[in-house]
Amino acid sequence: MYRKKTHTENYLHANSHHHPNQKLGVLKTLATRAIRISDETHLDKETDHLTRTFKNIGYKQKDIKNAINKALERNRNNRSAPQEQNPNRSAYLPYIQGVTDRIARILSKKEIKTSFKPLVTIKQSMRSVKDKLNPKNGKGIYKIECSCGKCYIGETGRSFQVRIKEHGADIKNERIHTSALAEHSIKTRHHVRLEDTKILAKENHLFKRRIREAIEIRKHPSNLNRDSGLDLSENWLPLLHKKQQETLD
User: Looking at the whole model, is its pTM more than 0.85?
Assistant: First the structure.
């Protein structure tokens, strides 16, 4: 059995808030590995090593011996008996000592195997090492609100940030013929809140963006859009199927 020089022998401590089956399951797994890859000459040496390791992290001698014996027994049974064809039903529960273990006993009467997971992990307690991505760098559907209560629904295949700047330039240069937002802003002198643009959905696929845009326009009847977007009738279903096939091909 090879172990790296940096191996610390740190496993789930006996006092950690995990179900006993989870904690002993770690030992059973290591014992099973030892049984499978060690010859008879070295197996005792490896089980002795596991016994010392788990005693150092709070496990009782009796529990360690039982776990190793169960691993030995399981290995013998797997060699002699055929595998069951019918998969067992399973339930996955967060482990709360004194609560979910009782639920597990009830489920076991219905032949439902219970697996436990910790409520809080170390990963959840630590900050991500990755930088957060700016959501406005994505593609999709967005909503721009006006001070009068109306809104504009749009979609973009470049980025939200670029599209918002384009709307700003349209308003500044009074491009009322090409921009519904610019027309509304110039005629009413209302404040179009570009700075508060909301991202309704992220979507890279053009046709899916067009469908979602049309849906959002209908969900926001008090809008400034000059049209209702893609025609959401039965006519677009064959086209959607064709686009999906082209994507798969």
Answer: no
**What's the helix, strand, coil split of the chain in %, to 5?**
50, 15, 35
- 244 lies in a domain? no
Residues 33 and 66 in one domain: yes
pLDDT digits (tens, 9 = 90+) for 163-173: 999 999 999 99
58-62's contacts with Cβ under 8 Å and 24+ in sequence apart are 58/13, 58/14, 58/15, 59/14, 59/23, 59/27, 60/14
Mean pLDDT of the chain: 85
- What pLDDT, on the 0 to 100 scale, is given for residue 37? 87
Same domain, 171 and 207: yes
* pLDDT confidence bin for 191, thresholds 50/70/90: very high
**Which domain range does residue 22 map to?**
9-81
What is d(CA 44, CA 40) in angstroms, rounded to the nearest whole number? 7
User: At CA 133, angle to CA 132 and CA 134, rounded to 5?
Assistant: 120
Please answer whether residues 111 and 88 qualify as being in contact, where contact means their C-beta atoms are separated by less than 8 angstroms.
yes
